[in-house]
Amino acid sequence: MKLGWILFFALNFGALSTSAQSDQVEAFIGEGTSDVLIDLEGETPATFQVIDELSEREKMLEEAIRIPPKPSTPRVIVPAAPYMAQLVKGSILTTLDGKKKLRTKSNIIVKAQEVIPGGQKAWILTKDGEKKYFTDTVNAPNINHVVQIEPTINPLKVYTDKPAYGSRDKETNFSHFFSFHLESIRTNYFKTIFRGEKGSASATTLQSKNYLISKRFPFHVGFNISTQFGYWEDPVLGTMTWNGFFFGPSIMRTFWEKEDGRWNLHFSAFRSLIHESEKSPDRHSYSTLGLQGDLEKEFDTTLGPLTLGLSYRWSRSSIKETTEYLENEAIKGEVVSVGAYLSYRFNWTL
User: Is the dihedral of CA 15, 16, 17, 19 positive or negative?
Assistant: First the structure.
């Protein structure tokens, strides 16, 4: 009986206590009043000790898993030391602004310095150590060891030692000439075919000559493509027009070079892919083989390398198809032309 009364009072007291706490929390949160305060002084010291220990453990854990950043050290590139070099014959030197190029005619002893240690480019220095040109590293082999051993250096001797750091040239250079020709043609061939009186004609030719630039050989080898439009006008018979498309091999030789430009010589062979003429109502189709020689002066300008040149062109044609009967003497014939041209040079590296 006493146990029942004890349980009854305990449950009722707990309910009253819970109800009072609920009313205080609801008044504090719901109404936003600051009249109800949490009494921290009523908490036991053990409670704060547990909180302090947890905070310390959290700090220790953060320090344990924290990875300190690596100190940043700037990358230092040590420049290559200047050295004595031999510029081999035919080396191409480029000015610092890249606008002019020179080609050496013979072996030259110079001072050089690699742009980047182990790189493919090297500066060519003046006697005072100032940078004046740059070139491929393989064009300037290091001969410091030769200077130390021999009292004098023979520039005619070719030194083939590898340059410093063993760098190699892996570049391939190409040059393209795009030219516009005005030509005066001497031809008795058209006069014979069309039974006319005039033995001269005029033509316009657009041509592209393309070369692989070689440093080992004096000539650069490539190919040419051209298209020609012309007319033969006879005072009695009227006007005959023709057009042709030609293709063939070419070689080029630069035989004089200075800072302001260079002289080039081209020699080409060509064969017709298309060669037709028309004089109403007749048409003719030709098979043509020919040779061409060009002498030109190339100038370095702000627009790039421009060229003025003279051209000599010889060809031999034979008629493949015709719409009229021709005598035997008109089946084959020669055409010779002389012209002047303007061209633009475009260089690129692979």
Answer: positive
